[in-house]
Amino acid sequence: MRDLDKKILTRTAMQAERARLRAAGKTLAFTNGCFDILHPGHIDYLAFARRQGDALIVGLNSDDSVRRFKGPDRPIVNEHDRARVISALEAVDYVVIFDEDEPVALITAILPDVLIKGADWAHYVAGREVVERSGGKVVLAPLVPGRSTTNIIATIAQRTTNTPPKTDKMP
Length: 171
Description:
The structure is a single chain. The protein is of the alpha/beta class and about 170 residues long. It is built from 7 helices and 5 strands, in the order αβαβααβαβαβα. Strands 3-2-1-4-5 form a 5-stranded parallel beta sheet. Strand 1 (about 30-35), helix 2 (about 40-50) and strand 2 form a beta-alpha-beta unit.
């Protein structure tokens, strides 16, 4: 097993690691997402999330979960490869793939001290109640304007077909 793969844990293994971190008095931060085509917005976001605790867990949407959320043409990169890429980042301590539409069950199992989401999700943060009820907090991360996987895919499509790009609308 490669060192990077050691950061990719099952939910059960992450629960055991969480218990070890809690016993050591460590603050655990958690965020989640698809992280389909990694870009600078992801890097800044994950670095911000990591600064919120002593260790960072990234809940990664499974391929099926991404398809249900983003549509049948996504993800571009499969879950195993996305997990390996995310685990290679210095800011990320652990990656756990989840298959549900939202990470509430994973958050409930792990009970992070800090839950981080992008500011574009201020209207709804899945797992907020679970984290706050257990004494944790929710932190909204600033966005990098114009950086999104959808925009990258649209640019590629436009350049290869000369059609106008369909991009994300940024708040």
